[in-house]
Amino acid sequence: MKKIAWIALVAGILLATAAYITEINDLPGAVELRTFGFIGYILIISAVAWFLLRRLYEWDKKTDAPRA
């Protein structure tokens, strides 16, 4: 799952960057790439959320808090 999250993060960054560059430079296809840029943002947010949840899970395992 970690590898999938890394792939999603990198793919999201590439999609969002491509959409941003075409929009800023007013290149042809900028309107169509907005959708892919949005998908890129979703991939970035999902991957970061998975990494943060995984980190919280690891921190919880390290603490030996007594359970009632």
TrEMBL record:
Transmembrane segment boundaries = 35-53
Q: Which UniProt keywords apply?
A: Membrane, Transmembrane, Transmembrane helix
**Superkingdom of the organism of origin:** Bacteria
Q: What is this protein called?
A: Uncharacterized protein
